[in-house]
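Case 202 in the screening queue. Each case pairs one protein sequence with one candidate compound; here the compound is zinc ion. For every case the pipeline is the same: read the inputs, emit a complex structure as tokens, and attach any notable structural observations.

Predict complex for case 202.
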Amino acid sequence: MHFYFRATILFVCILLINGGSFAQMSDAVDSFTVNKVLTKSEKKFPKFYREFNYIKANDTLIKNIIFVEPKKSLDNGPAKAGPKGNIFIDIKYLEHEQPDFDDDRLVVVLYHEIGHLHYFMTVPVADRDPEENEKYAFEYSLTKTKELADKGDCKPLKVGLKFMKIRSESDNLQDPHVRALKKMLNEQQYSSYMEYVKLQCK
Ligand SMILES: [Zn+2]
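Case 202 output:
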């Protein structure tokens, strides 16, 4: 109860600073539950667990990582980055594997959100553009998952490319993810990642 109360106060403060819809539609999860779920995720999602702990310890641009539980049956995807340096993670995705979100995909999502964070931290508010922001996030996830592939694990890079292709085929041009992907898939950089996978990931 005490933990929950403290978490709620912290969350309300963060909400006031951040003002993101993901945050407004969710409740913060108490630290006892978060620790329990994270401990279990070491076995269930070992790559996510490893990368999560690495970035938490080494990425100085991250201010807070907040685990949330969306209200009712809302689902806004596994994670979201806020413009003030906070990352929100829907704890459901670590409690049980969700369709299309296995360990490899969670690594991709994590680096996509970190990419957003880097965009927010390096591009002044007046110069920000939703499509550029998504492009930056996708490119960051590709850079980081290729680093993993260079070290011998191609799966996160492969799964990232696969879902980028699928999402690029959407007709929803209101969605900046879709617009960014339609552009990216015609670029040389994307082809070079595909070529890399073909040659290096057997
Ligand atoms: Zn995004």
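Case 202 observations:
- Confidence is low (pLDDT under 50) at residues 8-19.
- Residues 1-96 form one domain.
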